[in-house]
Design brief:
The protein is α/β, with parallel strands linked by helices and 347 residues long. It folds into 2 domains: 4-156 and 295-346, Alpha-Beta Complex (Quinone Oxidoreductase, Chain A, domain 1), CATH 3.90.180; 168-290, NAD(P)-binding Rossmann-like Domain (Rossmann fold, 3-Layer(aba) Sandwich). Helices cover 23% and strands 27% of the residues. It contains 9 helices and 17 strands. The protein has helices spanning 45-51, 120-125, 154-166, 182-194, 206-215, 229-233, 248-255, 301-310, 328-336; strands at 4-12, 15-23, 31-40, 65-67, 71-78, 90-92, 105-107, 114-118, 140-142, 175-178, 199-203, 220-223, 238-243, 258-266, 287-290, 321-324, 343-346. Helix 3 packs across helix 4 and helix 3 packs across helix 8 (301-310). The radius of gyration is 20 Å and the shape is globular. 45% of the residues are buried.
Length: 347
């Protein structure tokens, strides 16, 4: 096994490079080494990391930092006490240990050739407590025949399903979503399975609205660049309004569109230069449910996989382009200019 690996690193704000001097992670006795095959590019968090506008509280590491949190790969070697993981097993979101990165930090470190997973079952059998388990809440096993490229959207789909559960979307609710990007589309997909109520979506890119309407049964698409939102919804108010963009202005505007007792759900990651909310501008008798950090997403993973296996969810609806990881600058530019809906990088 080689000692160094390639990775995608952000060396300073706005600068992304392929580096080849990152130490290959060495598994501890309960850990397994994973060869990464693909990694989804997150239109929100990854760009914020590159631009230096993700907050420290959300996990931003010091430059140079290794990018990515949506990887999928297969186990290639085992620590000596691993019993319930075998070579060839597939996982999403393998991990890197920050103390072993040779001068790099990780934010969140999935865009690399290798990562680590841990045999939690063996550790618990051998007397470890749950608090002592490494990578808890940060990895998930997937079927051995699951396509690696499709797996590049599994984490984001799991986050969307988890968010719908956490937001407590119920049958009959009317919902308005801001943002028809990959996360917004994922939210629409799982919300429609929960409610037959009115479902509307607001975005400024017509092609995304068209794509969303082709994938999900949406009652109204609204292009805010050419249409007046209030005029289109015709005075309708909603049980839930969801910000999938990450904007305090959307949060404030969205509460004006809520029914009495309604809930504004914030899922988009707020930027470091836009996270102060004037509470006096929130509508009276409404609630704000913040979910900037994914919560319990891996509990949704098996449900998402079952939906894919049954054909209810088609992963290819949630990404548009596949790039080799060496093409990261091209993928970034096309994502910034909205020519890519979502990219998956292959290693």
């Amino acid at each position: 096994m080689k000692e160094k690996m390639k990775a995608i690193a952000v060396t300073s704000a706005g600068n992304v490079s392929i580096v080849n001097d990152v130490p290959v992670p060495v598994p501890d006795e309960y850990e397994a080494l994973v060869r990464i095959h693909s990694c989804g590019f997150c239109n929100g968090t990854d760009i914020q990391i590159i631009d230096g506008i993700l907050t420290k509280e959300e996990g931003m590491g010091d430059y140079p930092t290794i990018l990515g949190h949506e990887a999928a790969g297969e186990v290639v070697s085992l620590g000596r006490k691993v019993r319930y993981i075998k070579p060839g097993d597939r996982f999403i979101r393998p991990n890197l240990k920050p103390e072993r990165l040779g001068g790099y930090s990780r934010t969140y470190g999935n865009m690399a050739e290798y990562g680590l997973v841990a045999d939690w079952k063996a550790m618990l059998e051998d007397g470890f407590t749950e608090e002592e388990l490494p990578f808890i809440g940060s990895m998930g096993q997937i079927p051995g025949d699951f396509d690696f490229v499709d797996a590049g959207v599994l984490l984001s789909l799991s986050e969307c399903h988890s968010a719908v559960e956490n937001f407590n979307i119920q049958s009959g609710m009317d919902v308005l979503i801001y943002g028809a990007g990959p996360m917004g589309l994922g939210m629409m997909s799982f919300i429609r399975k929960k409610t037959s109520g009115f479902l509307g979506v607001v975005d400024g890119i017509q092609s995304r609205l068209v794509h969303a309407a082709n994938v999900v049964d949406i009652d109204k698409t609204i292009d805010y660049t050419t249409q007046n939102i209030e005029a289109v919804i015709g005075g309708r108010s909603f049980d839930v309004v969801i910000d999938c963009v990450g904007s305090t202005e959307i949060i404030l505007q969205g509460t004006k569109q809520l029914k009495q007792g309604g809930k504004l759900c914030a899922m988009g990651v707020l930027k470091s230069n836009d996270f102060m909310i004037d509470l006096s501008r929130l509508s009276n008798n409404t609630s704000l449910h913040m979910l900037n950090f994914p919560y319990n997403r891996f509990a949704s993973l098996n449900t998402v996989i079952k939906s894919i296996k049954s054909g209810d969810i088609k992963p290819k609806d949630y990404y548009s382009h596949v790039f080799y990881f060496e093409e990261i600058e091209k993928a970034l530019e096309l994502t910034r200019t909205k020519q890519v809906f979502k990219a998956v990088l292959t290693f």
